[in-house]
Model the fold of this input.
Amino acid sequence: MSELPVEQAAKDAFNKIKEVINNLNKINIAVVGKTGVGKSTLINAVFGEEFAKACVGEPVTTEFRKYTKPESPLAIYDSPGFDMNEHSPDAVKKDLLKIIDEGIASKDMDKALHCIWYCISTASDRVEESELKWLAEFTQENKRYNVPVIIILTKSYSKKNAQELKNVIDSKMLPVKKVIPVLAQDFIIDDMVVSKAYGLDELVAVMGAVLPEDLQKTWQNVQKAALEDKVRFAKRIVTANAVSAAGVGASPIPFTDASVLVPLQITMIAEITAVFGVNVSKSFMTAVLASTLGTGGATVLGRTVVSNLIKLIPGAGSIVGGAISASTAGVITTALGNAYIGIMKMVFSGEMTVDQFESKDGKKKITELFRQELKNKKN
Ligand SMILES: Nc1nc2c(ncn2[C@@H]2O[C@H](COP(=O)(O)OP(=O)(O)OP(=O)(O)O)[C@@H](O)[C@H]2O)c(=O)[nH]1
Ligand SMILES: [Mg+2]
Done:
């Protein structure tokens, strides 16, 4: 009865992805630190070249510029040229508090400042007293607002120096969430990598712990530095949807109506796409759906497809009364979700492009990933 053409399902998926991304809550982060400590380098490393290249900055206070990119839920407040020796420490503090205040006054979560990264360079050997004083004063005033502050030790070429600096700062017991040594970019001398970049994964994880639940999906969407974190988060989405699918399947779904599961699976795919922050096309979605839920037919989860899929699931047994069970609905949804995570991982890491997945070999790869997941029921 409700046989759903693959093209229609792909179009629905494509629109759903746009909707999920447009509806992401906004995230606003201030990056503060003396001039030259590596703020811009850090921003580029965490949020990727794509954001760095396409974002535009507008002055919002004397000391801060706000960087945004069309269709991105991220805004960065950067404080270029912050100098501890001139008038600017007070001005930066005042402006930062003003940004926090205005965010709160707006009563709009999308406009609030959600986190502050205070950057101190490890390469400058020791931290200046004036800087610690600034931090002590600022964090004291921030107690009114409780915006999470993370101290990032930038340019941590030497892990040993970074640890020593971290110990000094930790001993001050400042009300900050964490002090994290980071090397945002490989340190290269004479074409030789002297220190490999590190610490971004820790920063990403700490952000995940610090940000409220409402911002978790946005955070994964914008961060480009920790693939494993994205995968972990995406797996949670799959589990939640598999449970819902099993719920739908609890009253056994007649074969011909298995496509009632498709809207739920489309939402799952859209959310996973948002987590990976990958740009996809309608034709890519057609390839994904045709090579999984639509294998061998012009519809998704049509009668033939379902009976073929069930044959692949170990222990699913024969079909009783022409219906699919709760557990089968769950298994198919989990397999689709996990296969899609596999595809997104490959696109994210540059192993395969979205376009390549649309080719004959690409589609074969998708089918393979999906079938493997179906057989591998333990997930
Ligand atoms: N290799 C390496 N170089 C870095 C790193 N961080 C910063 N640098 C270098 O340090 C210099 C200053 O870095 P920026 O990122 O421009 O510093 P900034 O804090 O944005 O400076 P202002 O915008 O002037 O306040 C640049 O030449 C960077 O390439 C890093 O993690 N690794
Ligand atoms: Mg800069």
In short: The chain has a mean pLDDT of 92.
